[in-house]
Design a protein that fits this description.
Blueprint (H helix, E strand, L loop, with lengths): L9 H33 L5
């Protein structure tokens, strides 16, 4: 049996990429904030 590939509409693929890029940027921002917080704590800037 051969499986036929599903046709995904172009707008849905673009929306998927948008969500993926947005999620990646949110994660990257969180990692940057976490690293900056660690550096500040190492420098003695405690809350």
């Amino acid at each position: 049996m051969q499986m036929t590939p599903r046709h995904v509409p172009r707008w849905l693929r673009r929306l998927g990429w948008l969500v993926l890029i947005w999620a990646g940027s949110v994660v990257a921002l969180g990692v940057a904030a976490w690293v900056l917080r660690g550096v500040m704590q190492l420098a003695g800037m405690h809350r």
